[in-house]
Amino acid sequence: MSRLALAILALLPLALAAQTRTQPLPQDGHAPAPASAQGSQTGITTFGNPGEQQVIVRSYEPDAVLRDQYRIVFDALDTNGDGYLDRAEAAAHPTLAAEFGGVDTDTDGRLSKEELRGWIQ
């Protein structure tokens, strides 16, 4: 037997132990209750390969209570009138200040209206 074959056989138990095993949902004739979604769906992602078990993740707008945390008036925050929000200007909005790095997709240290389109305004 070749060294490669022996190496594969030696690693096989480790590979099998590392696999995640899942149990199917009980088949009682009823579908699981959907998650409660207060706002409109904003995205969907599917993980897994066709023909295999897949996981679907959906994102929704925040409910009315959280929506106000993401509402901004760009022109009011843009105190220097340059058409961008820097970290100092964003500090006036606690949620935006906390998520500034994630919203600043081009990492230039300032937020454009385009970068803020994903926010509920």
From TrEMBL:
Residues 37-50 have a biased composition (Polar residues). One of its GO terms (molecular function) is calcium ion binding. The keyword Signal applies. Residues 1-17 form the signal peptide. Residues 23-50 are annotated as: Disordered. Keywords: Signal. Residues 65-100, 103-121 form the EF-hand domain. InterPro entries: EF-hand-dom_pair (IPR011992), EF_Hand_1_Ca_BS (IPR018247), EF_hand_dom (IPR002048). The keyword Phosphoprotein does not apply. Transmembrane segments: none annotated. It holds the Pfam family EF-hand_5. This is EF-hand domain-containing protein. It comes from Luteimonas yindakuii. The lineage of its organism: Bacteria, Pseudomonadati, Pseudomonadota, Gammaproteobacteria, Lysobacterales.
